[in-house]
Amino acid sequence: MSEVDDAGDRPGARSGEGSETGSGGGGRLGGWTRFVTARPRLSLLVALLLTALAVVAGSGVADRLGSGGWEDPTAQSTYATKALEREFPASQPNLLLLLDAGAASVDDPSVAAEAKRLTARLATERGVTGVGSYWQSGSPALKARDGHEALIAARITGDEKTASDTLDRLAPSFRGRSGPVEVEVGGPVAVRHEMQKTIREDLTRAEMIALPVTLLLLVMVFGSAVAALLPLGVGIIAILGTNAVLRGLTEVTDVSVFAMNLTTALGLGLAIDYALFIVRRFREELATGAPPRTAVGTTLRTAGRTVLFSALTVAVSLAAMLLFPQYFLRSFAYAGIAVVLLAAAAALILLPAALVLLGDRVNSLDLRRLFRRGEPRPADGGAAWGRMASLVMRRAPLFAVATTAGLIVLGLPFLGVKFGTADDRQLPSGAESHIVQQHIRDGFPGSPGGGLEVLAEGAATPTQYARYRERIAALPEVMRVDGPLVKGDAAYFTVLPKGEAVDEGAQRLVGELRAVDAPFETSVTGTAAVLVDSKHAIADRLPWAAAFIAIVTLFLVFLLTGSVLIPVQAVLLNALSLTAMFGAVVWVFQDGHLSGLLDFTSSGSIETTLPVLMFCVAFGLSMDYGVFLLSRIKEEYDHTGDHREAVRFGLQRTGGLITAAAVILAVVMVAIGTSRVANTKMLGLGIALAVLMDAMVVRSLLVPAVMRLTGRATWWAPGPLRRFHDRFGLSEGEAPEAAQVPATEPGRDKAGARG
Fold first, then answer.
1. Quick one: pLDDT band at residue 217, thresholds 50, 70, 90?
2. Beta partners for 186?
């Protein structure tokens, strides 16, 4: 995976490359170069101070993040949940104590006496309301079928942070042996609390895995330990800065704890991508004999522009999640946009300053010489990538069809996707709250805690309530109806579905309940209702998000290339590169294949928001690599006018770099994928697969094949758009106009010795 230092095969005297005042935007970027390199020591000192402030500002951010955010805040179910919490707190228990009587029955007098004592004690605790139990109500839904287990239910009040603190205070004093019973703590509040704790621990472990492995890979790529440390430093700065941004956002909005994982992954991954691209180009310029400041100027005009475009395309993909109402998705947009922009800023401001100070010392400490014998072998200039590009273009129809068909086949399992909600099965099988919920699922009738609540608002008579209850009980998916519990002009009914809490039958029941005629206003909530409303919110916003990503991406790639066809190709091929990820997600995490190897519990469904999140992140990363490749192809085409040679040369110059960057990013994502939380595992491993497929299959095989098939038409644009690009477009490097001539023989190598 060693870096291809192929500066020797490129003309060192290309007009404009060694100057800070080249044509077009070169003069503007020359000013920028002087700005960022005029006082490099001062720039680095300011960066160090800002990083220190970010460490202070971002401290404790994980403790302020929430573990929910999957529901639509404007949905009927959300309204009903809040109204029930306010008026009937006992209807929304979030704390469950599972009492196991062992060989005895829960109706045994000694067991009942201890259970009643625990119930009364829980009712006196501060921050707890709506306490009830099987021994008070006699409800069969709170007693296990075998008669050896039963439940105490309560509601811990307050927001997520307050509820978590209350649970920390209560759980140790109730958990464990209490007289004749063994008590375990569960319920939604315990699941959320355990999930937050697990994610924080897993993130620390992932960072401990990713950082040394990433550094080792960077040393293999660059050879120089000094050069390898620069991308890692940019990534750390981006992560710390994003933590400070998230800490500030928690003062004004909810932010999901899952966003921390994306911060680490993208912070390291993209910062390394950008720094790789810039440091590599800088070393190329040094190899031509350019002094450090001139090399930095050329690097910023060329690779710097590509980094800027790449950051914009990734940020656009992530910004699409702001269109969704769920704060789970919006949190990833906050974290992603912040880390992308900070990584780009560090790569374009701080890294050039460091390179000016280092100069030729950027190549110091070549650690690879410790593992090789004799003199180092000369680099082949990426010739292997060039040969592969030539082979693909000679057999373009075969590679295009075979690659496309293979990707589509890998994506077929996604046609059977089933959407669900995140629950305790996200946690490891040994987690206490997961064990409690599994006992309830397996041993209790009617899915207690998973029923549907119907809120009735408006004055009504007992007769009207009774008739409404009869209509509900007559629905085919209903097992039992409890209630109503009346308070003033409001009442609520609890409806237990026949099947699982969120299966297809329960989701159909939500619609049926909402359609039942009633002489008062009704609204339905519960796990299945939240899922139905979440799916509706995503389906409603998804076309707008997809259109936003497509339109802005098309525009940005047009600005980069000046072509009408290339942006369309980029969007379609990027989307195609994600098929393997979506197919694998369903085959593994929904259907449960490899669950033993990967150590997770399959719930039989995919959380509704995750495909949206994974698409936005993976599409942005695909565009990241696409921009790297297209910018180099465009630069070569501007210099030679030879389409085929430009494609070959572009892949030759960037193939190794893109592959190295993809492998490093995949390592980071796999480290995130070692999480014990199933959704985080799915996110990390899924995106790692998408990144590798994009770099090694789409960029290496499909892109050159498709561009060979489209030929010179690839670069066509109508007159008005061509003039618009001439005025506002940007590309990597500016070529002299004399070099921009058409190829007289499309198959001929016009690069001379470059070939």
1. confident
2. 96
